[in-house]
Amino acid sequence: MHTRDLSGWQHEHRFQEDRRDAERSTRLVMWITAAAMLMEIGAGWWFNSMALLADGWHMSSHAVAIGLSAFAYAAARRYAGDRRFAFGTWKIEVLGGFASAMFLLGVAVLMVVGSLERLWAPAPIHYQEAMVVAVAGLAINLLCAKLLGGAHHHHHDDDDHHHHGHEGQAHGHDLNLRSAYLHVLADAATSVLAILALAGGWFYGWAWLDPLMGIVGAVLVASWARGLLMETGKVLLDREMDHPVVDEIREGVEQGLADSETRIADLHVWRVGQGAYACALTVVTHSSTLTPDDVRATFAMHEEIRHSTIEIHRCHADA
Predict the structure, then answer these.
(1) pLDDT, tens digit, 9 for 90 and up, residues 250-293
(2) Residue 267: its pLDDT value, please?
(3) Are 26 and 175 spatial neighbours (Cβ–Cβ below 8 Å)?
(4) Does residue 195 contact residue 138 with C-beta atoms inside 8 Å?
(5) What pLDDT is recorded for position 273?
(6) pLDDT digits (tens, 9 = 90+) for 241-262
(7) What radius of gyration do the chain's Cα atoms show?
(8) Which residues make Cβ contacts (< 8 Å) with residue 264, sequence separation at least 6?
(9) Mean pLDDT score of the chain, rounded to an integer?
């Protein structure tokens, strides 16, 4: 006996509507970042600052990655009603976050290569002019972080309202929005490093500090990218069987149906997007009247389970 819960399609439309604000914020940040990128690359090349140039190139890849995040939002919304997507379009955004993390790793490599070249072949730096540009870049990054941060907290509030089954667990994580937010934070961090490097060279004559800060910034960016790759990769590979909701489903079914001597023979749980999970389970029971809806009712409090497929095997008394 098989059944499938299709009520998740209504949740799909609700979540796509909620994320329109995040899409608009991400698109605005993309254009602001692109403008700041052109300013920093031009100034870094003109004033011979490796730290400023690295920050500019770093920001250019972020403009592309944030643009990818905006595209992911638009694609997820456009195909929200397309029934060819078996579990909805949430994973489009997760895929966007994964691609953005890959961009971050590429940026880190380019920053290291460029900084090492400047260490071997130093060039005179116009510190005062470069410092003005670096401070302006930091101000722009902070503005972008505020724009995305407001959308980020709005989504957390929505997630807490819609999903409140696990104590101490945040069920809804917009990985696409988080990836864009991380890009902006990485830009802000490298802008701070650029300012420190320029200040050291300007006041103390430490010309080597400029390319060294490029390497430090690359290590920082790579570490953030690694964390984002692991989190998005886990979703894309359906590695969710260690999530607390798995044990809670198992306990709910076996304890809620203990009178009918029902147990779970097979259980699979995987994430299909932001705060949304699907599950497939097989139960073995001595009850002759147990239905899939009875089984589903034992974990109905977990609203994050958007789709469930249930198979029932009955054990006869003379078996």
Answers:
(1) 988 988 888 888 989 999 999 876 677 899 999 999 888 899 99
(2) 94
(3) no
(4) yes
(5) 67
(6) 888 889 999 988 988 888 888 9
(7) 25
(8) 250, 253, 254, 281, 282, 283, 284
(9) 77
Domain segments of the chain as ranges? 8-236, 244-314
DSSP 89: S
Distance separating alpha carbons of residues 253 and 132, to the nearest angstrom: 63
Length of the chain: 319
User: 8-236: which CATH architecture?
Assistant: Up-down Bundle (1.20)
200 and 206 Cβ atoms separated by less than 8 Å? yes
Q: Are strands 305-314 and 2-4 parallel, antiparallel or unpaired?
A: antiparallel
Q: Which of 37, 67, 68, 70 is nearest to 54 (CA)?
A: 37
Look at the pTM and tell me if it is higher than 0.85.
no
What SS3 string covers 271-311? EEECCEEEEEEEEEECCCCCCHHHHHHCCCCCCCEEEEEEE
Q: For 9-24, give the DSSP string.
A: HHHHHHHHHHTHHHHH
Residue 208 pLDDT: 86
Residues 233 and 54: their CA atoms lie apart, in Å, by 28
Does domain 244-314 fall into CATH 3.30.300.20? yes
In which element (H, E) is residue 153 found? helix 127-162
| Exposure string for 292-311, b = 16+ CB within 10 A, e = fewer | bebbbebbeebebbbbbebb
